[in-house]
């Protein structure tokens, strides 16, 4: 069963809740759309920053440096991994869908002049709890911004 490739959609992740953004993107990828996410470091994670960072640091200790499992620390890779978790990645349709996804830190020069889509239902303004950005989270768990 081949999925027919639809249009390319460019999403701006600024002030969007990561979980809601990811679930919507996963559904659309499975329907055959190509999706480019820009400003991945500006997406938000709900909850207390200290608790999430503590859990992530414990998880980062699992495994061996040379043998895995490998844990992403860059914001674009963190967003990609969250979306991958919502896809059936071991099945061919999930692998094809994952290949149609591109995530960027900031906005690349070649797509600066294009129009960006957003998701009003995933906006962080609706949150009544504390939240922080993926970029802040990445810095806390060891992202070195200079060595992108």
Outline of the structure:
34% of the residues lie in helices and 13% in strands. With 148 residues, it is α/β, with parallel strands linked by helices.
Termini Cα gap = 38 Å
Proportion of residues in helical segments: 25-40%
Instruction: List low-pLDDT spans.
Output: none
The CATH architecture comes to Alpha-Beta Complex
3D shape:
globular
Tally of helical segments:
5
The CATH class, by name, is: Alpha Beta
Here the CATH topology equals Ribosomal Protein L13p, Chain: A
Across the major sheet, the strand order is 1-2-4
Strand content: 5-15%
The CATH superfamily is: Ribosomal protein L13
Q: How many strands appear in the DSSP assignment?
A: 5
Element order: H for helix, E for strand: EHEEHHHEEH
Please give the radius of gyration in angstroms. 16 Å
The major sheet is characterized as: 3 strands, parallel
What is the number of domains?
1
Which class of secondary structure composition applies to the elements?
alpha/beta
Q: What's the pLDDT, averaged over the residues?
A: 92
């Amino acid at each position: 069963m081949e999925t027919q490739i639809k249009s390319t959609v460019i999403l701006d992740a600024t002030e969007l809740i990561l979980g809601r953004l990811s679930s919507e993107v996963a559904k659309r990828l499975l329907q055959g759309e190509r999706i480019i996410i820009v400003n991945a470091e500006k997406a938000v994670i709900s909850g207390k920053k200290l608790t999430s960072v503590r859990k992530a640091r414990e998880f980062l200790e699992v495994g061996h440096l040379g043998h895995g499992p490998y844990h992403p620390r860059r914001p674009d890779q963190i967003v990609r991994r969250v979306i991958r978790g919502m896809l059936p990645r071991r099945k061919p349709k999930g692998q094809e869908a994952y290949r149609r996804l591109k995530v960027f830190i900031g906005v690349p020069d070649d797509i600066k002049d294009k129009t960006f889509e957003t998701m009003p239902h995933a906006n962080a303004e609706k949150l009544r709890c504390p939240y922080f950005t993926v970029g802040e989270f990445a810095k806390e768990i060891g992202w070195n911004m200079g060595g992108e």
